[in-house]
Amino acid sequence: MHPVRYFKPWRMWRHHDVEKTYDVVIVGGGAHGLAMAYELAKRGVKKVAVLEKSYIGAGGSGRNTTIVRANYRTPEGVAFYKEALRLYEQLAQELDYNLLFSQQGHLTLAHAERAVNVAHERAEVNRLLGVDSRVIYPDEIGRLCPVLDLSDRPAFPIMAALYHPPGGVIRHDAVVWAYARQADRMGVHIHQDTEVTGVVVEDGRVAGVRTSRGDISTRVVVSAVAGWTSEVARMAGVRVPIVTHPLQAFVTEPLKPFLHVILVSATLHVYVSQTDRGEVLIGSEIEPYSSYSQASTLNFLEVTAKHALELLPMLGRVKMMRAWGGLCDVTPDYSPIMGLTDVDGFLLDGGWGTYGFKATPIVGVTMADLIHTGRVPDLIAPFAVSRFWERRLVSEIAAAAVSH
Amino acid sequence: MTFLITCPNCGPREALEFSYGGEITRRAGPGSSSAELTGYLFFRENANGWQTEWWLHRDGCRMWFLAERHTFTNEIRRTYPPGSEPPVDAQAPEGAA
Amino acid sequence: MSGRLPARPGEAIDRGRPLTIDFEGRRAPAFEGDTVGSALAAAGVTITGRSFKYHRPRGLMCMTGACPNCLMQIDGIPNVRSCTEPVREGMRVERQNAWPSVDRDVHGVLDSFSFMMPPGFYYKVFQRPRWAWSKVEPIIRKQAGLGKVPRTEDHEPREVVNLHADVAVIGGGLAGLAAAAEAAAAGASTVLLEQRREAGGRALGSADDVDRARLVAEAEASGARILLGTAAFGVFDGPVVAAVGGGGLQRIRARHLVFATGAVEQPAVFPNNDLPGVMLSSAVELLVNRFRVLPGRRAVVLTSNQDGYRAARTLRDAGADVFVVDLRAGAGSADGLRVIPGSTILSAKGRRGVTAVSVGAPGSATGQSIPCDLVVLAGFSAPSTNLLAMTGAKLGFDDDAQAFLPVELPPDVHAVGAVAGARTVQGAIAQGRLAGLEAAAAVGQEPPGAAGRMEVLRAQAAERGDPVVLPPEVATGEGKQFACLCMDVTSKELKAAAAEGFDSMELLKRYTTVSMGPCQGKACMLSAQRLCARAAGSSFAETRPTTARPPWTPVELGALAGWRRTPRKETTIHDLHADSGATFMWAGDWRRPHHFATPEQEVEAVRHRVGVIDVSTLGKFRVKGPEAVELLERLYPNRFGDLAVGRVRYGAMLNDEGVILDDGAVCRVGDDEFFVTVTTGNTAALERWITWWLADWRLDVRVLNVTGAFAALNLAGPDSRKVMSVLTDADVSSEAVKYMSASSFEVAGVPSLVLRIGFVGELGYEIHFPSMYGEHVWRAVMEAGRPFGIVPFGLEAQRVLRLEKQHILVGQDTDAESDPFEVGLGWMVKADKPDFLGRRALEDLAEAGPKERLVGFTCDPSWLPPEGASVVHEGVWVGRVTSARRSAAARSVVGLAWVPAGWAEDDTEIEIQFGGAHAKAKVALKPFYDPEGARLRS
Description:
The structure holds 3 protein chains of 3 kinds.
Chain A: E1 24-27, H1 31-42, E2 48-51, H2 60-63, E3 67-68, H3 75-89, H4 91-95, E4 106-110, H5 113-128, E5 134-136, H6 138-144, E6 160-164, E7 168-169, H7 172-185, E8 189-191, E9 196-202, E10 205-211, E11 214-217, E12 220-223, H8 229-235, E13 243-252, E14 262-265, E15 270-274, E16 280-284, H9 298-311, E17 319-330, E18 337-340, E19 346-350, H10 356-373, H11 397-400
Parallel strand pairs in A: 1-2, 1-12, 2-8, 4-14, 12-19
Antiparallel strand pairs in A: 3-7, 4-6, 5-6, 9-10, 10-11, 13-16, 13-17, 14-15, 15-16, 18-19
Chain B: E1 4-7, E2 11-14, E3 19-23, H1 34-42, E4 50-56, E5 64-70, E6 76-80
Antiparallel strand pairs in B: 1-2, 3-4, 4-5, 5-6
Chain C: E1 14-23, E2 26-32, H1 36-42, E3 49-50, E4 57-58, E5 71-74, E6 77-81, E7 92-95, H2 109-112, H3 121-124, H4 132-142, E8 160-170, H5 174-186, E9 190-194, H6 210-222, E10 225-228, E11 230-236, E12 240-245, E13 248-259, E14 263-265, E15 278-280, H7 281-290, E16 298-303, H8 306-317, E17 321-326, E18 338-341, E19 344-350, E20 354-360, E21 368-371, E22 374-378, E23 381-383, H9 386-389, E24 394-398, E25 403-408, E26 413-415, H10 425-442, H11 450-461, E27 482-484, E28 489-490, H12 491-500, H13 505-512, H14 525-535, E29 555-556, H15 557-561, H16 574-579, E30 583-587, E31 590-595, H17 599-608, E32 611-614, E33 619-624, H18 628-635, E34 648-654, E35 660-670, E36 673-678, H19 683-697, E37 702-705, E38 710-716, H20 720-727, E39 742-747, E40 750-755, E41 764-770, H21 774-785, E42 791-792, H22 795-804, H23 839-848, E43 852-859, E44 870-873, E45 876-887, E46 892-900, E47 909-914, E48 917-924, H24 934-937
Parallel strand pairs in C: 1-7, 8-9, 8-13, 9-10, 13-26, 15-22, 16-17, 16-22, 17-18, 32-42
Antiparallel strand pairs in C: 1-2, 3-4, 5-6, 5-7, 11-12, 12-13, 14-23, 19-20, 20-21, 24-25, 27-28, 30-31, 32-38, 33-36, 33-37, 34-35, 35-36, 38-41, 39-40, 40-41, 43-46, 43-48, 44-45, 44-47, 45-46, 47-48
């Protein structure tokens, strides 16, 4: 610990003029874009610009429910998120910023036999790949979370749960700021309020981008814009297998801590955790229709409140305090799209659906490696957009019902 | 989802009565290439703007019909049964909302 | 300063009805009509809670439920706004967030150490060494939160009401009352929502009640529906206004929305501006005029307009000693009040309450000290534009109002009164009347002579009042100056954060948590925005207001959850199953018997005698029309053109990826009519699927979902034919009713469609009949079967039976990628058909060949691998078990598993693993029971 240094203000990032040329332009100043910028700078790529149309962390990075976990279903997914979790565990030291990572454990509740089977399957795949994950039953669930209604009174009694002890919550904004701070220190230009309006492609390769603050020439453009991936890819003439769906969440007024584990229920389509401020954070599955609107919907509030009360009926008189929505870029197999495209120099980091935030550090490392060396790292090779043409899908659908 | 959708049979109803069927696609049938098949199965325009899409009046007359919805505002400017697409010149300009 | 002032007309309390509340174990007197806050103020309680971060004492400030200062735990419910909560006899009231008590909170020491906790404090420490945070976090976490989670469960359903009107007025202040009165009087159906229990808004606290009383009477007489205690909390797509009233949710749809949401009075920022005794003029007026409590004997009022003078007169008339500090240099003494012009409050002093203020010219280093026990901040307000902004209304900065006001409204949306910038009572009322008339006219209810009146009103509505003079953003004295009371954020912290790079409102908000507490900016909007602008080096006018998000007023989850019903479906035979002691389970939305006796006994009965299962939940479709065959040919890879009338064929539907969606029986019951069954849980999805393609293809066929119209029983077992012959006069011999036939005859006197199919692998009859006869037929079957030892069986026995036959369950044994070649259904794909769903994809899949296969396996019964167990090869995951049961017939565990395609050969040894346990198993491609199907055909 450094007992005095926090008295001085820390310079987090600066404002710069937009330069005419950059080596790499990253579209999207969220956690992913900033992590890539940081990792690129670490690898000696100096002229990197991150273009953010709003403020850093304005999109999915600041709207997700901050859950980090590695208990996926496919071997490809487990290997990838296991590495993400490992990096997250040491990220605060790496970036010299406390990210308030709280590995309180993650419970995926099963209220139906089918859900129990999926829990078995995920536990097994996880265990074989070295991820701490196991199926537990009501007695142990009750010890981990005494406030849960484990009786057979609920319409959907809890039968078992997939328990993933290293799963936790991390302060999402802090991840954004910490990456931005270190990227800035190493010379990355972070341009907020700078919107990309076009990608210039000449002879099948990237030549630059047009922005609300002038044109930039560059040979490498990375799209890291979550829900807006289709729009940015379209600018480069690249088609993507993505549909944008809204995802919503709300928090209650602060309560004294009573919930010390993350609860997810695939049957009830809710997940619940309590933040370090004491708010109960409740989220749901993506909306069934495509939309670019981030406004909350009344139906979401009603249904999600009802389902949350199925799990935690003592919250009936507790008040919802703030609700918000975000955009998810959903792929047909619920796995991301990372890497090269048919347009030389145009790289994709998208299709994250509801999982993007959890992958941040490993996305930074692997995408930076790809840009720096020109070789696709093994860990992300399965996630190339070409998998759709080759029918090599990586199906996380069974784990995706509502697995935040 | 508290906006209204005008079912061609039943008139304006709450969106909650309907099921969403996704943006319209062109089916790759027999004789199409693998690339055409992949494009049809997985790739979508996903426009941030007007989109022609399928809706089912699930809790009503159970009719499938087409709607032109703005994916940012959720405004619906037109609904019609399949096979009765309105003439192109009747359409509002792109990005009107 | 406890006790009450003498009675006056218009007071809210009923002195004839005293009651007692339990305040932290003490008895506190109150009157009917009091709020908890007013009763406690009368009892002399000045500290109403401790602040979130520094545990500073806080007292009543707004009396309108806007600020976070008086949140209390009331009857076990956390975070109740005690200032507006009506008293009830015996209610238990406790203050929050302090230990051991609010009056002596040991955590108050945090306040003295706050210099050690600059903004972002936690982000900058404890990251090294790696274990530090995990040790510190639980301690810090204990400090979080305000109220305690309720101990009692709440299963109470709440009413949900849908309201439709021509005009909805949101806010029942004077402008809102005027709008509702005009619209309703003109003949428009009108509803008015007012969050307080009385209409009148800001005028409620006024000593002079004339305007309010007149408008309330007018609105009541107009026929407008006035919903008091109904708080609008959001405006959603549609637009739909959502409100909570009487504990229940209300969804309001109206053709015109009139926003009369008023403004929220805001505190000024100066050192120790959070001390108990620092109040808004709204609180002072309500306490004195309505509840007859004098909150202080020596008051200093900071103001720049008539609101302050009104509050000062109210206090003086109630017996207090009053100074008015007027920001305007030209202010002179008025009404005999002592006025200090051109000045502001430089700081406040006190520990558990304010004891003095320092007053001087803005920016001056020192000022004159005035001892006082009450500071009134009067007439600084922020228009409540939040709900309005949710309609898409655009806001712009107004210099005269020093506020963001609506500059562009969506069609059919109106804004009137303070939210629209009105600063005089008459202007606000005129705006309300005008909007009411305009809305009524727009829905075709224009009263005679309206045009002339509207012209007059337009002129009056334009009246704005004097320009607003706000106090300086910060003052010059020593001590914490709070921008945000909920989260304890000071002006200094905002400035430091902006210097670090958090220089936009959104970033400041996220970093310092300013405005993110229970008031969600209601009570700090003005100071937070102005201070953020200042910190970021811009002006108030240049700030971009943050996105308006619901809820404007916090909403109980129980109210949102509404009726709390979980839909469930039951077959028409359900009650009989319950009477027989069945144990039920979920199957999709259905409740179905899992077992009656034991699954083992039930399996034994079906294999050796006869059993019956209620399969009414099967999805059933009637497909009829000249192009019925064409539709089925396109929906299935199977061929149906050659299916004879009276015959049944097993088929599976695929999507265009070639993935199996469902399987079931297709029965030809006429030349152009089919009866199709699908899996229970898939019925709704398949109805959507089939009718969607039908809409696209526009074939001349009708598809009707008749699931609810028909009950169905599966009578199965070697003795089932004997039971059938008791139940019907029809010839049920194997020649008359052949395997895979569909015949129509009466069963137990009920016209039925009888399918001779056998999911469980025995001679069997699937009997479909009108569902109203469910109980009758079930009883008849049980009666007829009694001599043969018939038993009812449940889903568990059915699963064992079908697994012994290796019949797959779509969705359990298959997933979103399984194609027919992989699961051994390649035989049904008729590639010579011109087209069917999945055909094109199957071409590619057939060429590539399956990579994985679903195969049967057997293993030693000493260990039953759970469904979901792994198939491993040299420690690597290569597949999974989808179904497994102990089989008496096979004397082993039987199951289905996905394995690499090359292993799909009889007797291939595979290794199954789960947790620490593992077992060797053998692939078996043929059914474990009656592999040739002789029993089915018998």
